[in-house]
Amino acid sequence: MKFLSVLILAIMLPSGLQAAECNMAFVHGILIAPDHIRILQNNRTHVQINADQQLFIRGEWITLAEADTALLQQYSQDLRKFVPEIVSIAVDGVELGLSSVEAMFTGIGSKAQQAEWRELVRETTFQWMSRFVRTNEHFYLAPQSLQELDYFLNDELKPQLDNLARHTVGAVWGALRDALRHSDNNFERADSQEWQSVGQLVDKINLGLDAKVVEMETKSALFCQRMQELDQVEQALQQRIPALKSYDVLALKD
Question: Which of 17, 92, 163, 237 pairs with 178 at a CA distance of 20 to 30 A?
């Protein structure tokens, strides 16, 4: 039933259609932590909001009027609701694929081979997680638009996970064949099982990623609206605190 629902939604919603219509983008990196929010540029913190009500710009504490504090609190709480949701969609997709790959070589091959395979997975994870980070209650989103997030799920994550799965699982079954060479029957069984197992793994990964793509597509219009509303709050805050105008978090992207 779950698969059927995903399939129906996928047919109803052409890939990337909703996200492509939104030209809003995050133009600075955002780090959400339980006690603060940081707005980053080139990995350096330029704006920090503590406890949703204290504002620091380039390390300087900004004295706020009561109305300014109320607007800052609204802005901060909106970011706290929104950014983790976007990050989680991307991270869930990555973790789903990588956990499926890692499960295949648990307990197989020598320690050196396992270390090599895990290093390959770690390298792949690092490349993706420089854009999306979820660690306990900490969330990081790199500068990007909704369209770029849609592209990541549709056109970047899928083929790279496919290649990783085929490379790693092929190596795993290669190790098994080496271990089973003493028996021709076992060798033949392992050899014929290789492609079936790789195909099953790739199908499993793609099915899970398709669900994340559909989730992204169904939420894209809502996400775009929330970004526009958040941008309005940001602009109102910038009118009251002109020093913030240099640190647009949200903007229209050409």
Answer: 163
CB 30 within 8 A of CB 141: yes
Rounded Cα distance between 99 and 40, Å, is 30
Backbone phi, psi, residue 117, to 5°:
-65, -40
Centre a 10 Å sphere on the Cβ of residue 165 and count the other Cβ atoms it contains.
23
Domain count, the chain: 1
| Residue 5, domain member (yes or no) | no
| Eight-state DSSP code of residue 244 | G
Task: Report how far residue 175's alpha carbon sits from residue 219's, in angstroms, rounded to the nearest whole number.
Answer: 43
Task: Answer yes or no: is pLDDT of 73 > 70.
Answer: yes
Q: Residue 228: give the domain boundaries.
A: 14-248
Please give the torsion angle defined by the CA atoms of residues 69, 70, 71 and 74, in that order, rounded to the nearest 10 degrees: 120
Nearest partner of 233 among 36, 82, 23, judged by Cα: 82
CB neighbour class for 73 (10 Å; exposed up to 12, middle 13-18, buried from 19): middle
Residue 151 located in a structural domain = yes
Rounded mean pLDDT, 44-48:
96
Q: What is the mean pLDDT of residues 96-121?
A: 71
Asked if residue 233 belongs to a domain, the reply is yes
Strand partners, 141: 30, 132
Residue 133 lies in a domain: yes
pLDDT value of residue 101: 72
Q: Where are the alpha helices (DSSP H) in the chain?
A: 2-12, 17-20, 66-104, 111-129, 146-151, 158-179, 184-240
DSSP state of 250: E
**Which position has the token pair 């707005």?**
39
pTM, full prediction: 0.73
pLDDT at 85 (0 to 100): 92
